[in-house]
Request: fold
Amino acid sequence: MAYKNRLGTATYEYDGDSIKLQSNLANLDSLAAATGLDFYEYLDSCKTPRQLAKLFYHLQFESNHSEAEIYAAFFADLSMFQSEENQKQLQEVTFTLMGLNYQDMIQKAAPSNKKK
Reply:
């Protein structure tokens, strides 16, 4: 019997660069071995650009960039964290990797605009 693929795969883009990420078992094991934390624990503790670069390094999919390359391409420009668009994109990527549907989460959290 074939199984459905429910792995979260997301693409993060910044200033013309992009990286594909996936929360497959090998990537999660790699992250845990490097950090000593489970994926969800690491996400919860992720507070700096360097930690995000490490996360992206271990979860990259169909690429083999170094952690330094990922940091330089996506996180070295700290002003990008001030952009609402980038914040939203990071949230979407995180939710996708966790297996959550970002749009459903937003709709559930937002008040209804329907007129009665």
About this structure: The first helix runs from residue 25 to 35. The mean pLDDT is 87. Strands lie at 9-14, 17-22.
